[in-house]
Amino acid sequence: MALALGVYFFLPRDYAVTAERLKQPADGDWLMVRRTYDGWGYSPLNQITTANVTRLQPAWVFKTGQANGHEAAPVINHGTMFVSTPGQQVIALEAATGKLLWRYRHTLPDGVVLLHPVSRGVALYGDKVYFAAGDAVLIALNAKTGQEVWTKNVAENKSGYYMSLAPMVADGKVIVGASGGEYGIRGFVGAFNAETGNEMWRAYTVPAPGEPGSETWPQGDQWKNGGGSVWVTGNYDAATNIAYWGVGNGGPWMGDQRPGDNLYTASTIAIHLGTGKIVGHYQYSQNESWDWDEVSPPLLIDFKRNGKTVTGLIDVARNGYLWFLERTPSEIKFVEGTNYVKHNAFTGLDAKGRPIVDPAHKPGTGKKVEFCPSLSGGKNWPPVAFNPRTRMIYIPVNENLCSEFTAQKVGYRPGQLYTGTLTTLKAQPDTDHVGEVQAWNVDTGKRVWTHKYTNTPNWGPMLTTAGGLVFTGGTNDRMFHAFDATSGKLLWEFPTHSGIIGQPTTFSVNGKQYVAVQSGWGIDSRAMEGRLNTIFPGKYPEVPEGGAIWVFAVK
Description:
The chain is mostly beta strands. It has a domain at 36-70 and 448-555.
């Protein structure tokens, strides 16, 4: 059951989102979750600068009517904003005023299996808006009215499949991935015809017997429930027609219950969108046993090493390593890797970039093991951003945290949790802070600056602009922050009604630049806040919830 309420509104002649516009968006538009296929989270708009950002004030605020975590990026096409929220909503608004144009609601079935009731955004193509619903249903909406054009059941929700990501549109296809590794699914990325919804191909993240990578799994049927969730929208190289997707942990969590490297868990996979074939991969943690879902896709950034330009991928992994890789049409090659947070699970990397695991800090069945960083990682799902002017990437970091796992043997039952692990959050000795923003120069591979937050984790996705700014939320003080992209100086902050874990975007209407973000604490940020408050009573109180879209402009 679905409902769309609103008004029919006039669309400009060039309103349709074409393949060409997705490849080269106008400066004032933000047509996909990270604006461009390379995943940079960068805008060439420069009306808001380091000189005038202190004059930034709310232009309008729109309450979504939903609580829980608001993580989606507002996307903007020629002055119309489209945004998804918890509660299976998609909303269309006038981007300059906040006037409601239409609101769509998807009703979940009774007994839905949905561990993370969140949406990370929508996709635009032609005259349609594409939404990945929590019950593993892909939905195409009419961009003018919000009415359903078609729906497609992507996977069986009762078996633990659900979706939380924004769809990707590329090569005429709508591409989504399946979440639910904690329920023992077999993960995949699937492509659907943008006009009809018909499935075109499906690339599984856990290979079946006889497929490449199947030799990294134990014999038998365990591959059928091997995990490999896809939580976050991939990035795309239009020149090669290859998309890069991050893949989560295996099922069950303990690697000694599934001996082998377990491809393609904890990996980046390269998928040719014409064929749906996996043409390359890079695994960040073999036989992954720490719940480090390496679901964030790498950014497509060409960087310099030893006087040469590398056609690159840069991944800030949950396992606490910053990875510099080379992308080619047939493989992903290791260049270098370095810690960006304190780490004890690996003693280093070998010459091919394979982690050297310290057995004392690798969880296993029947053992109690502590390791750092925590299961939430040095960086979780919130995306980094890259500014081509500063040549820096900006990372939302949680430092000084560790986890303790107590694991046991677990059996698979459809729709039931398939982790087998009790977890406890720990803090490093003499911890003085948790949340950080880090800036790294991609050409030197060195950290340039760090901003340390006081008494808060950081769950803030990053936005950077040609105006020399970095925008992010992520803190329990409910602030939306703006940093000087070069120096890291905090220039401006504004308190919203809740904590911000949404992805900021920026756009222009009639020559005026705006910055938009959803405020609404919840999901993983709420869970970490609660656990931190058990370690440091009173320092990490509950954060008010309730969602709203905030749009700012210079006044």
